[in-house]
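Continuing the series of single-chain predictions for the mutant panel. This is the parent chain; the variants come on the following pages.
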Amino acid sequence: MGETITFWVLAVVSVGAALGMVFNRKAVYSALMLGTVMLCLAVLYAVQDAPFLAAVQIIVYTGAIMMLFLFVLMLVGVDSSDSFVETLKGQRFWAILAGLGFVVLIVVAIGNVVFAPQVGLTTVTEQGGGYIRSIATELFTTYVFAFEITSALLITAALGAMVLAHREQLTDKPTQKDLSRARFRGDHPSPLPGPGTYARNNAVDMPARLPDGSAAESSVNRYIARYDVEHGRLPQDPELAEAIRHTAEENVPQTEAEQSSNEVTK
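Parent structure:
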């Protein structure tokens, strides 16, 4: 009875998290929803008296791979907007082909579950001469195709992260010499001031003070400044508030309408 209740509760949570992963527009939330699905699978393995699979599910998939996804999302950027320009030629054709193949795999998997006879975990472990050996034998003989498909999915996820991070290089990449020359010819030849330099408060979202007493706008991260402006968390000091507003207005990503209008103009 307890096993049945656990299954139905985790089934609802897993399906809800899977739908949230697919339909969520924020990549970070989708990654967290995928982690929820993997944790539910680990609990189901533990209920079915498979502690090895439960531990592997948590350590390898939920721990290592999900952290890899989150690090990739951090490298891609949290404020990068969707681009409608196809940077890689022919990717739509291969995406449609891969989607059709995935649909075929789902249909075959559902048919196998519905029409194939159920063997049971106890019968499988008794035939293989041990728990770990039984899992290894079934994994690399009967279910070797599913095992290879899973590895292909992981490789596809890595390639997808590379596609997300890909940006079309329109100009030559500046060298270290070019960056140093532009730095000394600009307004800030010295390193930019960090939060806390001549600071009068102990918060990273407040501008630092320069030696002359003015606010250093470049010491505030523009993402933090944009968050403070959107949520109305500005300081009472008008000079600091104006510095945060000016920092938030710099390098604001274009909306989809502005991108479309720019593309039409070009």
